[in-house]
């Protein structure tokens, strides 16, 4: 499976507000970012951010150093065009999160629904190593995945479902969990999906 080709097809054939993971306001992510205590001028990265509205809300809140990474150039283009004149305030990165080579360190790494698509243990290990390089000591890592009662597939692809303790096991080499939150996400089609969000601190 060519993951990049899959997501390019998704974002060139479906409107951003029609995909199952669309959120009009990413409230849980915003609350966790606020509790992480990141200063407005510190660097943040939204991994798999694509067409998400999180970047809009972060700019609205006054964060001045925001990066958005997504494997799909089409997804990035949706957000870029939506932001208009504000788009140039954002660092746009078309990259596979598991192969990303960060050139800087971030105060906060946010990922809603990338990690659970990594069904190969080697890819998960690679992702964790990338995150360890990218997040500065004392920085925050927020990862959201489908929970134990969440769907077994998304967008036609298999996923791995996690409880907070499962995510601990994935990230324990470099991170310590400080909180977890469950969210029931309602898709545009009306389906209810269990998500688990965990906030970690980089040792």
How much of the polypeptide forms β-strand, as a percent range?
25-35%
Q: What proportion of the residues is helical, as a percent range?
A: 25-40%
- Side-by-side strand order of the widest sheet: 3-2-1-4-5-9-8
Gap between N and C termini: 35 Å
**Alpha-beta classification:** alpha/beta
CATH architecture descriptor name: 3-Layer(aba) Sandwich
The main pleated sheet reads as: 7 strands, mixed
Question: Mind telling me the C-alpha Rg?
Answer: 15 Å
Order of helices and strands: HHEHEHEEHEEEHEE
Low-pLDDT windows of residues: none
Mean pLDDT across the residues is 96
List the helices and strands and how they pair.
Elements lengths: L2 H11 L13 H9 L8 E4 L6 H7 L5 E5 L2 H11 L6 E5 L11 E7 L8 H14 E12 L6 E2 L2 E2 L5 H8 L3 E12 L5 E11 L1
Parallel strand pairs: 1-2, 1-4, 2-3, 4-5
Antiparallel strand pairs: 5-9, 6-7, 8-9
Helix pairs in contact: 1-4
């Amino acid at each position: 499976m060519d993951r990049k080709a899959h997501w390019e097809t998704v974002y060139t054939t479906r409107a951003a507000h029609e995909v199952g993971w669309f959120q009009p306001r990413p409230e849980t992510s915003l609350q966790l970012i606020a509790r992480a205590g990141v200063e407005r001028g510190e660097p943040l990265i939204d991994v798999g951010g694509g067409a998400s509205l999180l970047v809009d809300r972060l700019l609205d809140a006054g964060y001045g150093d925001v990066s958005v990474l997504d494997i799909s150039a089409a997804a990035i283009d949706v957000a870029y065009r939506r932001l208009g004149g504000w788009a140039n305030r954002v660092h746009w990165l078309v990259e596979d999160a598991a192969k990303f080579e960060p050139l800087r360190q971030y105060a906060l790494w946010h990922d809603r629904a990338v990690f659970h698509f990594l069904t190969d243990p080697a890819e998960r290990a690679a992702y964790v190593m990338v995150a360890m390089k990218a997040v500065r000591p004392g920085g925050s890592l927020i990862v959201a995945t489908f929970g134990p009662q969440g769907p077994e597939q998304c967008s036609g692809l298999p996923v791995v479902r996690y409880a907070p303790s499962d995510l601990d096991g994935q990230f324990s080499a470099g991170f310590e969990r400080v909180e977890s939150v469950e969210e029931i996400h309602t898709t545009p089609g009306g389906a209810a999906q269990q998500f688990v969000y965990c906030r970690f601190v980089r040792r």
